Structure formats: structure tokens, C-alpha cells
Amino acid sequence: MTRTSASPLSAGTPERTRFTAVLRAEWTKFRTVRGWVIAPVIAALLCIMFAYLVANGTHTDFCTGAGNCKAGHPFVPTGPNGQAVADSYYTVGRQLTGDGTITTQVTSLTGVISTAMTNVAPSQAQQTRPGLAAWAKAGILARPSTRQGSAYAAVMATGGHGDRFQYNYSHDNPGRSGPVSTSSPRWLRLTRTGDTLTGYDSTNGTTWTRIGAAHLTGLPVTVHVGLFVTSPVSFQTSASGSRTLATATFDHTIIDGHTTPNAWHGQSIGARQQDFYPTLRVGSYQRADSSLVISGSGDIAPAVVQGLLGADTAASSLPFGLTVALIVIIVVATMFITAEYRRGLIRITFAAIPGRRRVLAAKAAVIGAVAFVTAAAAATVAISLGERILQANGAYVFPASASTVVRIIAGTAALATVTAVAVLAVGAITRRSAAAVATGIVVFVLPSIIGSISSGGAVQWLYRLTPAAGLSVLQALPRSAQVDYPYTFANGYYPLAPWAGLGVLTAWAALALGIAAVVLRRRDA
What we know:
15-stranded antiparallel beta sheet; two-stranded antiparallel sheet
């Protein structure tokens, strides 16, 4: 794997050789060394093999809150766009046929928080203290049915985020700020016109402010409308979270439109499915004169609860195999330039092409392209294979959109490309294979290994400042401003956004390339 052919450029090549000719010459060098051609194939196979081993070694026996273990995973609702969602609440409602409007006044919103963490049985979590989750919600909800995961639109007051208009789990429009209290009640209104639902709020029930609107395609003629309350897991005092329950008082509730003649009907949605989203207790409602007092626990929001669910993602089995593949790519990238130094052939190359930086650029383009194709192919197979095996072993795999999977594959390919180019630059600086390989592994691989086996705040900075930040491209779990959750590395979240993390790695590669360019220009071959 050390032999290399001389530059195919003739001795009469002009001093300012066209870059395409230099690129062709470097590609010829690469493909004529059998070991360099075989190594990327081995890297791809290793990546796939280790992804298979990691996925195949994952066998899930899921335990419910009651302490009963069973094979497989719990039911997780899927939203209109195929995303995993949390959908549990208590509602008191009726059927509305055609257009109509429902108006209510929220006069109070209070809550309690369990003193126990979410990993205990629900029966052990009943001891509570006063406290209201910031995303506790109380308001008006309309949806085609009460099936979990179905489309919806809701206008609501919250515990700490003011009034909101939300729909289909991922859309959120802010209204008036401030908490609800008896001295500062909040009026809410939801209007249906065809497939369009519009939310309003008011401080006096006379002057209304539009918060937002949602067009729910295919909304049936008859929909479920009503009041609802829910309260999510709180992470204020514990990284594991605590169950919560919210209670709201509704007054002056009026429905204008054609509704079912029967009385208001109370219904708990999803609250008994303790194995997915921890709730404090099943909600309830009672009448108090002309008011309705409703309690509920759960959430209506995107599912970002890997730490609670123990879920895997489309890229869960990829990191370890990718690390092994990167080591092979690092060896090939360094040998691609250090082999010429060791055999003295670099002098011939520089004699034929005096523009040394163009030689470095051509080598970077060749090794980068090889790394890109290798990693893209390996990631495509590894993700598909790993996901199938995880599901076959009973693990729950968070659903990922096609765009997310494409982004992970493209990001993985870009990660390998930038790493290969950076290590090529290290080889140009050191001129020695062993030193370049060791430096490449220590700088570009070791931080990710340390991060994967460590914990604490230092890991966050490791994935922010070192080349390990590039692994952020593997992020598959969603983040949501609608969910207060500790988005830490321990819970499956990288501290930087995917392309921001890749940008940190690129900055390291740019630094290495800049130093290599200066060294090549100033130092004898």
C-alpha cells in the first residue's frame, strides 16, 4: 500500500499546469495503488458490519410503570406528518357539525408536581407538591376524532408561556403573555370555517385578538370540539423528570353552531398508557355552579422523550461503525501524500507542477471524493439495515422523515470527506506516515471516543469545540421549543445543530490545510 507511480505529467508541462490535469494525475496515482483502492471498500464494509453488530446486540424488554416487563415496545402515537407525538389529555366536549364557534373564559390554572421521578410506578408518584408546569395547557380543542395522533387545532392558556394557538403538534403561535389568575382571567375563542380553524384571545370577552389560523385539509363535516387540560413531565428539579397534573376552571362557555343535543361528555385520552408518556393520574371534571373544573395530565406536542422511552433512531447503530471506518480512511488519506515523501517521488511531482498548493488541492479533491462516496454508501446500507434489525429485536425506532435520513447520509459523507482532507493536510505537514496517522486519530477520532464513554458537562464542550462536533450530523431526534426537556448528549442530543457541528470540524480542517499550504510553500521537498 506504499507504492505509487510517478506523475503522468510530461517534463514539458507548462509551469502553470491546468488544475484539471493535476487532478487527473493525482487520481491516476490513487487508482494505480491497489491497497488504496481496496481500503475504502474495507472501510465501508467495516462500517456496515459494526452497525449490524450494534443493532443485533440490542434486545428490548420494555418495562411499564407498574413494573411489568414485556418484549417489544409501547404504542407511540404518530402525527399527521408521520412524526412521533405525545397525545394525552382530558377533554370535555361535544360534536360540532359544520361551521361554528366555541368561546370560554379560563379563570384559574393551577397544578401539582409529583415528588417522585418518572421512573417509579404511577402508584408511587401520587405524593405531590404545588407547582405548575410551564407548558401546562388549558383551552379549546377541535379535531376530526379523539384518536391519538389525529390532526387538531387548539387555542389555550399555558402555565408559563402565555396564550398560544397550536396545531398538528409542531406549529405554535404566541398570543398574550402572562399567567392566568382570578384577577386576570383569559378569554379564548376557536372558530371553524370550512377546513380553517382560527384562534383568538381576549382580556374582557369583547375585544378579540387573532392569534393564528390552521387549514386542516380534509376536515370532516362533524368534528369533536371541547375544553381540554393537560400537563407535561416537568424537568425543573430532576433530569429524569416528574409527573404533573394541571387543573383549570372554565366559565361562560358557549358554542355557536350545530352540536349534538346531549350533555357535555368527559373523556381521558391516552392517560392510561403509562408505558409511553408518564402521567400523574387520569384526569377528571366536575361542575361548580355554571363553571367546569377540569384536571388533566400528559401533553399534546412532538415526542422528544428518548430518555423516558429508551428509543433508538435511524442512526443509532451508525456511530461506532463510522468511527472504525474513519480510522481506515485516515490511514489511506495520510499514505496518499506521505508515501511520496518516503520514496522521494514528491520531488518529481513538484518539479512537474511547481504550484505546490495546486498539488495539495488536487490530492484533497481526490481523497475527499473517495471518502464521500465510501461514507455515503456505507451510511445508506447501515441505516437501513440497522433500523430493520432494531425493529425486529423489539426496539422502538423514532420515525424519521425522508429528508432527515437524506440529511444524515449526506452529513455522514461530508464528515468523512472533511476528516480525510484534514488528515491529508496533517500528512503534508509531518511528512511521516506514523506521525500523521497518530495525529489524525488523536485529533479527529479520539474526542468522539472519549465523549461516547464519558458523562458530565465536559462532554458538551467536547462536542462543541473539538472535531467530534462533526458527529452532530447524526442527530435524528427532534428538538421542540414546545417541550421543556434536557436536550443533553446523555439523552441522545448533540449540543450543536447538525450543520453547525460540521462547521466546527470544517474549521479544524481549514486550519490544517492553511498550515499545510504555508509549509509546502516555504519548505524544501
